[in-house]
Amino acid sequence: MKSTGGDSIKEVCITVLGSGHLPFVPGTWGSAFAVVIYAGLWWLLSALAAPGWIIEVVTVAGIVFSSWLSVLWGEWAIKRFGRKDPGQFVLDEFAGQWVALLWLPPLAAAGLYQFVWVVGLQFVLFRILDVIKPPPARQFERLPAGWGILCDDLMSGFYACVIGQLIWWQSPLAIWLGLQVSA
To answer: How far apart are CA 87 and CA 107, in angstroms?
Structure first.
C-alpha cells in the first residue's frame, strides 16, 4: 500500500504520536500517552486558573474527537496493518483512558501527590479492564471496523470511571492514603 501525506497524518493520529509502534504492550503506551497529554492539559488549565468544569469539557471534546477519528479511520487501519484490531491503533485506548479520567474528584486538584494517585489508579484500572474486557466490552469488539476497535475501550473506560469514583469517594483506601474526599 502506497503511503500518502494523508496516510501519514492518519498514522500519527491512530498511533497517538507513534506510541502504538513502541515495543511490547502498545495499548499501554497509548494509554500512558493519553495520561501524559491529559496531565499536561490539566496542569495548563490549572496554571491559567480555569474553572474546574473546563477540564471536563476539554476531556469530553478529546473523547468525542478521538472516537470520531477511530470510527472514521478504523477501516483504513485494518487494511493498513492487516488485522481486525491492529495493535498499533491506540487512538481507541486514548479515548477509553480519557473516559476513565472523567469527573475526577476534587482531591485531584489538592496537589501533585493526590493528582498522581488519582490519575495513576485510573490508568491502572483502565488497563486492567481493557485487558479483561468484562461484558459487554468483549462483545463490542464484534462491531464492524472502527466501531469494533473503539467501543470495547469506551466501555472499559466507563467501568474504570465508575470504579474510580467509588474508590475515591467512599473507600478505606482513599482514607488510608489520606486522600478521602469529604462530601
So the answer is: 34
Helical segments of the chain, H only:
5-14, 26-47, 52-81, 91-100, 112-132, 137-140, 145-170, 172-176
Q: 3-class SS at 92? A: helix
Which grid cell sits at 107?
Answer: 482531591
- Residues 6 or more apart from 176 whose CB is under 8 A from it? none
The CA distances from residue 38 to 68, 89, 171, in Å, are 18, 19, 25
111 touches 137 (CB < 8 A): no
Q: Tell me the three cell numbers of residue 85.
A: 484490531
Place of cell 504492550: 25
d(CA 154, CA 19) in angstroms, rounded, equals 19
Write out the three cell numbers for 102. 472523567
Low-confidence residues of the chain: pLDDT under 70:
1-5, 106-108, 170-183
Q: Using an 8 Å Cβ cutoff, are 71 and 131 in contact?
A: no
